[in-house]
């Protein structure tokens, strides 16, 4: 259960970072804020992907199919 909370929390941080980059772009900000926000988003997305692979390998996440 804690693993799923961590994944959802990281997804929330990714969305916040994406929103921050959107605000910086809309303001026409010439600073590095948009670049840093998007860099964080990419890094966190890769981390989430790796955590999902680890979680599936260790049995924290169990795949299930659709009922036929």
Helix and strand composition category: mainly alpha
| Integer average pLDDT | 88
Largest sheet: none
Helical proportion, percent range: over 70%
Q: Low-confidence spans: pLDDT under 50, at least 5 residues?
A: none
Radius of gyration: 16 Å
H/E topology pattern: HH
So what's the overall shape?
elongated
Strand content: under 5%
Q: Separation of termini?
A: 27 Å
Number of strands: 0
Number of helices: 2
Give a structural overview.
- With 68 residues, the chain is mainly α.
- It has a domain at 14-58.
- It has two helices and no strands.
- The mean pLDDT is 88.
Give keywords.
2 helices, mainly alpha, 0% strand, 68 residues
Layout of helices and strands:
Elements: H1 2-27, H2 33-58
Quick recap of the structure?
The protein is 76% helix and 0% strand. The chain contains two helices and no strands. It starts with a helix and ends in a 10-residue tail after the last helix.
């Amino acid at each position: 259960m804690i693993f799923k909370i961590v994944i959802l929390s990281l997804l929330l941080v990714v969305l916040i970072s994406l929103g921050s980059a959107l605000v910086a772009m809309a303001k026409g900000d010439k600073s590095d804020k948009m670049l840093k926000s998007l860099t964080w988003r990419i890094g966190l997305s890769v981390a989430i992907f790796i955590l999902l692979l680890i979680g599936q390998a260790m049995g924290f996440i169990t795949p299930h199919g659709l009922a036929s």
